[in-house]
């Protein structure tokens, strides 16, 4: 054991940094774990070590920002540093990587160590990859859901039913939560909606809502705001509701993967933790979506329903069209503007309003607000009457945003480029996954102005030279990269257009490269 004085490092990262000499004295290498202890205050956390020769001087321990949120160290405070045992959860992760099955206790141990930052980013990625490749069965998924809930805070409400909705994502432009939640709340129901940020997409609901108001709240605040306004739309990652969820999603985001078992647990843990009784799940189905065909969609729906039964929630699922973006906008500001326009009563074509009112309609029927088969109509009436817009303003206000915001106040990035049709014909291919990659390369979701506006969707006729879609970015170099990505991925095909020309000396030239 050695004693070191704290140096606070304002870096949004987990763990500690030790001078190599102190690491040697303690007996740890890069990636090992230490226990940092202040006996007087009773403060003690485990952290993964990074070593340095220059950034941290001998006699000092650098404490990264996220770890210090739990340790609450002051600059210069003295801490005892000891080698920490290798967590047993790593053995469980290896077991899963070798194709084994988690028990309930093993799952809890892994989740607890993720939440307490005991596992390094590499170990969390190994857990996700092991579960992604070898899968989780329904028992393991239930264990994971319960572990995610029990390692965080839970909310309970005085009156019921509590309604909730969730989309598994995977379809670009899926801004429907900004319509579905206010419609349900305007019907007099409570819906404490927590969302994640983008996982495989260019803007998750939490990213979108953040363009209108703060989304980071404690569990208590979520409950109080929902009691007052009937609804919230907040970022689950900030609430300490199922805190493991966001840690897992952070590692899935760069890989653009959403492991099936973890997805079921991630969604249902958020519902269970807010005390939901009635849950509607949106499962987009399409060639480039997370679920490729209706059979797979029905299987996933059964799994959601079964998991709901195990946890005491009534779940209904909607298989939705996931072959084409929802509405015309992809990326934070473009999507928020489109959603607000729909709430303001603009004549937005098709998919956004239809999908939103169908999903909201299922919830209204489940809660007994509408007869079976009448929910969609009631949802549409609520939207058209302006009551959903009023409710959305109330939600924005209670979360600390400007309730008078108009759709036209939310503007796309100032750098844009139109992708025009090379030929006249029908749009026969508009690849969701490539559109998302282009929008992300343009800066989405971090740059709120970045994204894509689609003028012609699959099946639409386009004349030569007309724009098919426009790419927006907040920074010129991001737009350049997005264009380069677009040229490589060719996300759109117009019937009759030549896709590529391969000259006879192509192979010789490429071999020379
Ligand atoms: O990034 P991809 O994987 O498309 O989807 C992730 C999005 O889907 C869900 O939407 P909601 O919370 O039901 O609105 C998540 O919370 C997240 O916002
Ligand atoms: O909230 C969500 C949505 C999709 N997939 C997840 O893992 N979580």
TrEMBL record:
<dbReference type="InterPro" id="IPR036566">
    <property type="entry name" value="PYNP-like_C_sf"/>
</dbReference>
<dbReference type="InterPro" id="IPR000053">
    <property type="entry name" value="Thymidine/pyrmidine_PPase"/>
</dbReference>
<dbReference type="GO" id="GO:0006196">
    <property type="term" value="P:AMP catabolic process"/>
</dbReference>
<feature type="binding site">
    <location>
        <begin position="196"/>
        <end position="201"/>
    </location>
    <ligand>
        <name>AMP</name>
    </ligand>
</feature>
<dbReference type="GO" id="GO:0004645">
    <property type="term" value="F:1,4-alpha-oligoglucan phosphorylase activity"/>
</dbReference>
<dbReference type="Pfam" id="PF00591">
    <property type="entry name" value="Glycos_transf_3"/>
</dbReference>
<keyword id="KW-0808">Transferase</keyword>
<feature type="binding site">
    <location>
        <position position="170"/>
    </location>
    <ligand>
        <name>AMP</name>
    </ligand>
</feature>
<comment type="similarity">
    <text>Belongs to the thymidine/pyrimidine-nucleoside phosphorylase family. Type 2 subfamily.</text>
</comment>
<feature type="active site" description="Proton donor">
    <location>
        <position position="258"/>
    </location>
</feature>
<feature type="domain" description="Pyrimidine nucleoside phosphorylase C-terminal">
    <location>
        <begin position="426"/>
        <end position="493"/>
    </location>
</feature>
<dbReference type="GO" id="GO:0016763">
    <property type="term" value="F:pentosyltransferase activity"/>
</dbReference>
<protein>
    <recommendedName>
        <fullName>AMP phosphorylase</fullName>
        <ecNumber>2.4.2.57</ecNumber>
    </recommendedName>
</protein>
<dbReference type="GO" id="GO:0046125">
    <property type="term" value="P:pyrimidine deoxyribonucleoside metabolic process"/>
</dbReference>
<dbReference type="InterPro" id="IPR013466">
    <property type="entry name" value="Thymidine/AMP_Pase"/>
</dbReference>
<dbReference type="InterPro" id="IPR036320">
    <property type="entry name" value="Glycosyl_Trfase_fam3_N_dom_sf"/>
</dbReference>
<dbReference type="InterPro" id="IPR017713">
    <property type="entry name" value="AMP_phosphorylase"/>
</dbReference>
<dbReference type="GO" id="GO:0016208">
    <property type="term" value="F:AMP binding"/>
</dbReference>
<dbReference type="Pfam" id="PF07831">
    <property type="entry name" value="PYNP_C"/>
</dbReference>
<feature type="binding site">
    <location>
        <position position="290"/>
    </location>
    <ligand>
        <name>AMP</name>
    </ligand>
</feature>
<feature type="binding site">
    <location>
        <position position="266"/>
    </location>
    <ligand>
        <name>AMP</name>
    </ligand>
</feature>
<dbReference type="Pfam" id="PF02885">
    <property type="entry name" value="Glycos_trans_3N"/>
</dbReference>
<dbReference type="InterPro" id="IPR000312">
    <property type="entry name" value="Glycosyl_Trfase_fam3"/>
</dbReference>
<dbReference type="InterPro" id="IPR013102">
    <property type="entry name" value="PYNP_C"/>
</dbReference>
<dbReference type="InterPro" id="IPR035902">
    <property type="entry name" value="Nuc_phospho_transferase"/>
</dbReference>
<dbReference type="InterPro" id="IPR009010">
    <property type="entry name" value="Asp_de-COase-like_dom_sf"/>
</dbReference>
<dbReference type="InterPro" id="IPR017872">
    <property type="entry name" value="Pyrmidine_PPase_CS"/>
</dbReference>
<dbReference type="InterPro" id="IPR017459">
    <property type="entry name" value="Glycosyl_Trfase_fam3_N_dom"/>
</dbReference>
<keyword id="KW-0328">Glycosyltransferase</keyword>
<dbReference type="GO" id="GO:0005829">
    <property type="term" value="C:cytosol"/>
</dbReference>
<comment type="function">
    <text>Catalyzes the conversion of AMP and phosphate to adenine and ribose 1,5-bisphosphate (R15P). Exhibits phosphorylase activity toward CMP and UMP in addition to AMP. Functions in an archaeal AMP degradation pathway, together with R15P isomerase and RubisCO.</text>
</comment>
<dbReference type="GO" id="GO:0006206">
    <property type="term" value="P:pyrimidine nucleobase metabolic process"/>
</dbReference>
<feature type="binding site">
    <location>
        <position position="205"/>
    </location>
    <ligand>
        <name>AMP</name>
    </ligand>
</feature>
């Amino acid at each position: 054991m050695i004693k070191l004085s704290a140096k606070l490092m304002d870096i949004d990262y987990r763990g500690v940094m030790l001078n190599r000499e102190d690491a040697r004295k303690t007996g740890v290498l890069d990636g090992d774990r230490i226990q940092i202890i202040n006996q007087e205050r009773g403060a003690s956390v485990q952290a993964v070590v990074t070593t340095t020769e220059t950034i941290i001087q001998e006699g000092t321990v650098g404490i990264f920002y996220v770890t210090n949120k739990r340790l609450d160290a002051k600059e210069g405070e003295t801490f005892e540093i000891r080698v920490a045992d290798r967590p047993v959860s790593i053995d469980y992760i290896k077991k899963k990587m070798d194709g084994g099955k988690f028990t309930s206790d093993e799952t809890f141990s892994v989740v607890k160590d993720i939440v307490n930052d005991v596992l390094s980013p590499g170990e969390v990625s190994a857990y996700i990859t092991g579960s992604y490749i070898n899968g989780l069965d329904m028992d393991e998924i239930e264990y994971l859901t319960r572990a995610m809930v029990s390692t965080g805070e839970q909310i309970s409400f005085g009156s019921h039913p509590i309604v909730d909705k969730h989309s598994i994502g995977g379809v670009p432009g899926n801004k429907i939560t900004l319509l579905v939640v206010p419609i349900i709340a305007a019907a007099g129901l409570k819906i404490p909606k927590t969302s994640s940020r983008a996982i495989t997409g260019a803007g998750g609901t939490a990213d979108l809502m953040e363009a209108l108001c703060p989304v980071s709240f404690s569990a208590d605040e979520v409950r109080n705001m929902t009691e007052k306004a009937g609804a919230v739309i907040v970022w689950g990652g900030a609430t300490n509701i199922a805190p493991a969820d966001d840690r897992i999603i952070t590692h899935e985001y760069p890989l653009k993967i959403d492991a099936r078992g973890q997805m079921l647990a991630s969604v249902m843990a958020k519902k269970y933790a807010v005390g939901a009784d009635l849950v509607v799940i949106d499962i987009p189905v399409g060639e480039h979506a997370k679920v490729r065909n209706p059979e797979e969609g029905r299987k996933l729906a059964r799994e959601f329903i079964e998991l709901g039964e195990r946890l005491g929630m009534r779940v209904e699922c909607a298989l939705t069209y996931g072959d084409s973006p929802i509405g015309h906008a992809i990326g934070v500001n473009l999507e928020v503007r489109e959603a607000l326009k729909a709430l303001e009563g603009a004549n937005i074509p098709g998919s956004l309003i239809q999908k939103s009112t169908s999903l909201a309609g299922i919830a209204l029927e489940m809660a007994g607000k509408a007869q079976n088969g009448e929910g969609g109509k009631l949802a549409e009436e609520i939207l058209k009457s302006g009551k959903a817009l009023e409710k959305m303003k109330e939600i924005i206000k209670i979360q600390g945003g400007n309730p008078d915001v108009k759709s036209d106040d939310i503007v796309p990035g100032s750098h844009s480029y139109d992708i025009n049709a090379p030929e006249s014909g029908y749009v026969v291919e508009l690849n969701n996954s490539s559109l998302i990659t282009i929008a992300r390369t343009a800066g989405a979701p971090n740059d709120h102005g970045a994204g894509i506006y689609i003028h012609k969707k699959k099946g639409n006729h386009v004349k030569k030279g007309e724009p098919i879609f426009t790419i927006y970015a907040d920074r010129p170099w991001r737009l350049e990269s997005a264009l380069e990505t677009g040229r490589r991925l060719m996300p759109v095909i117009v019937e009759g257009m030549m896709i590529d020309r391969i000259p006879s000396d192509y192979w010789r030239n490429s071999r020379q490269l």
